[in-house]
Design a protein that fits this description.
21% strand, seven-stranded mixed beta sheet, alpha/beta
């Protein structure tokens, strides 16, 4: 079988299809994607570029493999700690059972960080759902086994209390020490996303920055539907949130958040 090679027209079509099915804008990563795409597609065993591109819209398995290819996440425990602490402080102040959505959750560090911070202030009436579009990281989150740099910001006492040390310097989360944490494979632009339920808080860090303006507005509408009245949306420092009728930006000493506008 001849080696498959993408030309500029093929690459443009690939970027457009990925944007259509996921909302992700790869134009800024065009050169990086171009270097890796030929190898990725040749390893799939398809016979031509046209077969790959036409199958990408209709073949569920091919679509998921491609999404996994373009969404490579790196995260660690207690990332942007000040914001995480504010979220848990606010959640506890609601004085009720609280639902939090982490979208995207990558390999689970953000979800478990929230759960650890809640446990440290004896707050367990909390249910956290983590979603991501990448199959591999969702499986890692469910496995809850971590090592290396991702643990660097945890203290030794936190490791002892919330992890079991296993072989090869790997640490597994003690789920019984934490509130309920669930992980699901989910595309925010899929109809299944809107069926996740209602949340008091949505945490979406370092995802919105990758979307074009149209996709950002669509996502804000979906977040608005999922949030309870006056629910809060927290985003990353680099995320760009367009002005809309869905959310009002609120500034505080510890940082900003977006409050749901009720119609």
């Amino acid at each position: 079988m001849d080696k498959i090679i993408f030309n500029d027209r093929d690459l443009n079509e690939f970027i457009k299809i990925v944007n259509d099915i996921s909302g992700i804008d790869l134009n800024d990563k065009r050169n990086i994607i171009a270097l890796k795409l030929d190898k990725f597609v040749n390893e799939l065993g398809v016979r031509s570029v046209d077969e790959f591109l036409s199958g990408l819209r209709v073949n569920k398995n091919l679509k998921q493999k491609t999404i996994d290819f373009v969404t490579i996440s790196e995260t660690y425990f207690l990332r942007e700690l000040t914001q995480l602490k504010e979220i848990i402080k606010y959640a506890k102040s609601l004085e009720k059972s609280v639902n939090i959505l982490s979208a995207p959750c990558a390999s689970g560090e953000e979800v478990y960080s929230l759960a650890i911070l809640a446990a440290q202030i004896l707050f367990k009436d909390l249910h956290i759902v983590g979603i991501d579009i990448n199959t591999e990281v969702i499986n890692e989150a469910k496995l809850a086994l971590y090592q290396g740099r991702t643990l660097q910001r945890l203290s030794e006492s936190e490791k002892r209390r919330f992890f079991t040390e296993e072989k090869n310097e790997e640490f597994r989360i003690k789920k019984n020490e934490l509130c309920t944490c669930h992980f699901k494979l989910c595309n925010v632009f899929n109809s299944h996303f809107e069926k996740l339920g209602k949340f008091d808080i949505i945490l979406s860090r370092n995802m919105i920055i990758y979307f074009d303006n149209i996709s950002r507005m669509k996502l804000l509408e979906k977040f608005h539907k999922l949030l309870t009245d006056r629910g809060r949306l927290y985003v990353g420092n680099a995320d760009l949130i367009p002005e809309s009728d869905y959310f009002k930006k609120v500034f505080s000493i510890k940082g900003s958040y977006y409050e749901k506008i009720t119609f």
